TrEMBL record:
Keywords, sorted A to Z: Cell membrane, Membrane, Transmembrane, Transmembrane helix, Transport
Transmembrane region(s): 16-34, 40-58, 70-91, 157-186, 224-243, 249-274, 286-305, 317-345
Location of this chain's protein in the cell: Cell membrane
Native species: Flavobacterium aquicola
Pfam family, one: AI-2E_transport
One Gene Ontology term, aspect cellular component: plasma membrane
Keyword Transmembrane: yes
InterPro entries the UniProt entry points to: AI-2E-like
Name used for this protein in its record: Putative PurR-regulated permease PerM
Amino acid sequence: MNQNDTNFYGINFEKIADTIIRLGVLFLLIGWCYDILKPFVLIIVWAVVIAIAFSPVYERVVRLFKGRKVLATIFVALILLIILVAPSILITQSLYEEINNFAHYYQTNEHLIPPPPETTKSWPTITKPIVEIWSSASEDLSKVALKYTDQIKIAGAWLLLSLAGIGKGILQFIVSIIIAMGLLLYSESLIKVSKNIFIKLIGSNGEHYAEVTVITIRNVVKGFLGVALIQATMIGVGFFLAGVPFAGIFTIICLFLAIIQVGIGPIAIPVVIYMYSVTDATTSTLLAVWVGITLISDNILKPIFLGRGNPPAPMLVIFLGAIGGFIYNGFIGLFLGAVILTLGYKFFLSWIDMEDDEPKIEELQTEGLQIDTEE
């Protein structure tokens, strides 16, 4: 009896030791693979998001090219790269010219900042410190710079880091678009693999969660990120045509505010007020009208892209996702954070509402989520 017990415990110990060694080797391999891919994780995840969001458009382009996927892939990639690179070049060129002008005016002691107009005397008392700084800067910018040296250093360092992060983010976007096009080219086999992964991880409801993932990503990209990009483009065009100083920086800030759902108003409205004080009334009025149209467009575009019903997530989720993503992952995190946090929010709600029977995808449509029936 004792001999049998000894053999039994010996066999169990061997099995346990064998399992621990196998798990150790597996975790080592997984950790090693993660370390290798760590520099590319954000790029790959964003590439997956782009591929999912643009797959309906890609399928239409494939039909337009009569099934020639390679040509369709190259065409879509070129369009996306042009949309990304062309505004980036214009904004960079604008920043370079404005910085050169700033340096020139500062060195020659010319008036870089125009004096505040007479209308500022009737402004509320709370704006008095701003008007005083404005007036001092218009008379002698160097004195103001010396007075606020510490604040300018902090703001300048933050601005340089932000611009560097934006440059890095644009490069990551370009690589993500290229990878996304490769994913779309082999989308049929990848769809099967992704569904199998969800089923393996979650079980019988895996296919449901795969559909939730696709629907949520498309709605967030279209309804929030897409609208923010359109608004930023509209306001940027207005700034450039009106000759607004540092139009590139203001456009980027407007894009940031639009993504976090604050809106472009906090930047666009002061810019319009400033333009009334430094340029002719016609240009300023046209800019004001264009800013008004851009502000209203948010209420028109979101219902079109999201459809009727509730948005895929509360504004607070989008706000926290965009801000947290930007702080944690930089410029690309501004876009990706909103998608990932919204996806987690939808998974959490689906898990709470999950029943024994597999949920029907049609139920998601009542929440304002639209399914591409062509897939």
